[in-house]
DNA sequence: ATTGAAAAGAGCAGCGA
DNA sequence: TCGCTGCTCTTTTCAAT
């Protein structure tokens, strides 16, 4: 399914450091990991090509952009068939208010994280873009008080005490 | 509350481009926006100081790290008081499986996005880290089929046809 | 695969307009 | 506020180990 990706401790440490600060230079990276800068570059490029690193995203403060209110909308799309949900997702993704769309199991089909200016804006969004649609059977709105990003994503530790290096799925 | 932040069309275009690829050089940025590279640097630094740009995040593929299964856990914490929820959030954030924690309105207090290896791993996580805790009154697990990040975050367009530049809250 | 050194390129400050 | 010039640091390449 995925390309062969083998991550040794050097790769893991680089990933961990870059997730803490994606702008760390190869020089600093090299110093902290204990290899040459050119080796770091090589590793990072390999992680890129291997699809482990998908890209670099700018973290922006929604409040400073006039979107101080965020919410999660649980949406039921009926009937839940490809010809309906495909366009639904694309339409939602195109909304300037949308941040993330989750397709999930359970009674509600989608969870949509949105960032809006204020309550009036949220009301407008829900009414105009969700409940007014025929394929949208139900919308439940939960406001987001606060949101925390968690620590760097790392491979799970092997529960059986196997070597710490993680080996991805192979597909030669 | 926030510093004075005024965003003109140049700032907005820079933000839009950087959200697509945060590693775009000032030179390329300048070429696409139509100003001098030094101006781009100046603008970006201002956006940094103004708190609009919070930092740079590395986007990583969880599946390539052996965390091919993601889920959203709705968690009810009872009693929902500061002395309980503070430590709860910190404990959850420290879990290597946790990606994002939302504090939300509604019957469930928290939404926790987790990335695990497989179903057995998810079961272990729910049982050991959530339902076994006394302050956790209820956990509802929804699996994530798929997840989409949406377009760049931009200021809302003014509904009254005012100038397109967005002016943040002032506090001189 | 990793390295050090050298070349190419980008970041950054100062200055003049 | 903008754009130019020049210096410094980073990134990237490459031959050798």
TrEMBL record, chains A, B:
Single Gene Ontology MF annotation: sequence-specific DNA binding
Q: Which PROSITE patterns match?
A: HTH_ASNC_2
Record protein name field: Lrp/AsnC family transcriptional regulator
InterPro entries noted in UniProt: ArsR-like_HTH, AsnC-type_HTH_dom, Dimeric_a/b-barrel, Tscrpt_reg_AsnC-like, Tscrpt_reg_AsnC/Lrp_C, WH-like_DNA-bd_sf, WH_DNA-bd_sf
User: Which Gene3D superfamilies does this UniProt record tie to the protein?
Assistant: 3.30.70.920, Winged helix-like DNA-binding domain superfamily/Winged helix DNA-binding domain
According to its UniProt entry, this protein's organism is Streptomyces tabacisoli
Sorted alphabetically, the Gene Ontology BP terms of this entry are: response to amino acid
Q: Which GO terms describe its cellular component?
A: cytosol
What is an example of a Pfam family matching this protein?
Answer: HTH_AsnC-type
Q: Which UniProt keywords apply?
A: DNA-binding, Transcription, Transcription regulation
Please report the stretch or stretches of sequence annotated as the HTH asnC-type domain: 7-68
